[in-house]
User: Fold these one by one.
Assistant:
Number 1:
Amino acid sequence: MNPKLISKSRIVDNEETTIWTIVNNNVSIEINELFDSVSDCNWLDKKHNFIEVNYSDWTENDLVAILTSDGEIIRDAIYCIEEIIEEHYLFIVRMSGAAMEEASYYGIASDEKKCGLIDQCGDFIIDPDFLSMEYDKEENIIYASNYTPYEFMYSLDGKQITEEKEIIFEQPPLKSYELFGDFNFIPLN
């Protein structure tokens, strides 16, 4: 039986609330009992193995959690999910230092948000050390950067491929724009 994600409206404390439930193998798990204030839930993958839960914590930080279809929390306190590498069950996540329990362990200040790569168990394969991170499907490589002229390359198992690679920024050609049909405008960079 395929897992189902069900939402129903219910009156709780004189307010209409959406109650989210996972039904899998005739077992029902109410997601709202796992988090303070759930605002939305969605499947993260086509096979319905993982659920994205949007919620607010006790300090009213808007956060995301990833659950399995069995209701197991694999990682919470995520600021946002940047990318899903579905074929490998990996997630590029942006973590918030304000919400993450182990922020000091990873050296993330309370006002910082850093990217890392987690596996299907919620463990970091690449620690949240970077300001940006993306997956190149053709090369099967993770590119990570701190907005410096250098970026780092990692394999999907978290091994660094190169020390650093210099990024060469090219100046894009100037384009003219038409405003209200009568004027041409050339942006200054």
Number 2:
Amino acid sequence: MARERKRLAGYDDYDDGTLRKPRKKGGFLKKFIIALGVIVVLFAVIIVAGLFIGDGLLKSNFGISLFDMFGAFGDLGHYDRDKIVTNGYGDDDVNGFYTAANDMLYFKSGDGEAVINSEYVKELASEAGSND
């Protein structure tokens, strides 16, 4: 009398009586898709965290938000031609600026002459640029 073999869990019999382990369906493809999904999520988390860290650093050091900078760069392409200044400033504009600055800062010399003028600003700039 031939002894009957016990059937092992998870194995199928061939016709000739040998055992084989069944193939998993989509084994490699499933693992590849899962790994790809994990990598994409990991990169997304790193990018979002980097944006928020960069935003915090810019706010603390320069007082401007990273998202405000992105908005400003985005607005460079959306300009209104009617609002672009085509004529430069003239001598009347310069004199008006210095007069307004003196009036606002209450700078007047003893004889009523303006203290801040273009010569004064040029002198300050040259002193600031010198290595003395």
Number 3:
Amino acid sequence: MCRNAISRSLGPTGYSRRVTQQQPPPYVPGCADAGAQVARLREVLALIDELAGRARRGPQDDMLDDAARLSSAYDHALPIDQKRFDAFASETGRWATAGVQTLLKLDEGGFPVRAAATRLAEELEKALRRLSQRLPG
């Protein structure tokens, strides 16, 4: 008589029944460059603006100053603040990238994208403002 008949039937035969858990990659505070993260998001915004038919913004001194301020504030921030900034920047980058990819596919298919691109640009601008306010300093 098998006492453990249920658990034996759950997994594929021939494999170890041990449960393994993968560890998330270690977080190393202070290794990211906040100014570069924001600059990349601004490049995505420029592409979205182009799809929306909005006027392109050239490099501006205040954007460079903002990137320098963010990098300095990031370097002096507490590790928890750095981690929150990185998480928000990553999340913003993911949805902005997904939005751009969708817009590009729609545009290639001949569908109108201006209204959607305008809305995505507005949301990314809001996220960039929130990101700039995430770090003290």
Number 4:
Amino acid sequence: MAIRMKLLALIALLVAAFTISAVTFFVARSPIGRIQAEQQTLADLRTALLDEQIQANQLVWSPFQSELAKFNAAVHRTSAAFFAVQGLTLLPKMSPAIRQALSNIQTLQSLIDSNTAAFLDSAMTIGKDAERAKVAASNYNLFDLSNDPNVHGSSFTYQVVSDADQLLTELYTLSSRFQISVQVIEGQYAAIAKEIARVEAQSTIIAVVIIIVLVALTLFV
């Protein structure tokens, strides 16, 4: 009878050991899903910035007015992606380094918004000047407006060329901002991936240690 009771107690302890270890394992891993979701938010921002950069580059070589509408749409998508990053709650708590990186990203947003606003103002100006100069700006890309001698002539046309030069300069500045932002995001994405791996390893170690301890205890029952 005593042997049977001891055996039942051993089985109960083993079941408890595995149950507790399983619960501990899943509790330790519970933040990982949220971490990965917030990590994806950064990936979405990176994608939005790259798309906006592509659309900005298209303005140099493609019909200006039609591409400008696409660029505006890309700007709105990037703004929405930055807004989503502002709503992150778990990542800022993971480490001071991640918190600082997210703060840097928000700083980059201010610079990009400022440069984008300046560019869009200049884009409105070139449209008005092109209309006054009777230059079909919609049929020209910025490179042609800046370099094609066929659009040179009147003072109004000269203003269109000057506008195109200004837009090209602002696009170059925007492109630099995009590249910096993408680099920061990629570095942060890698840091978060490393943190996820750490959490996974930690949860596994905790579960294994609990199993070993509980199984060891059963040996003294």
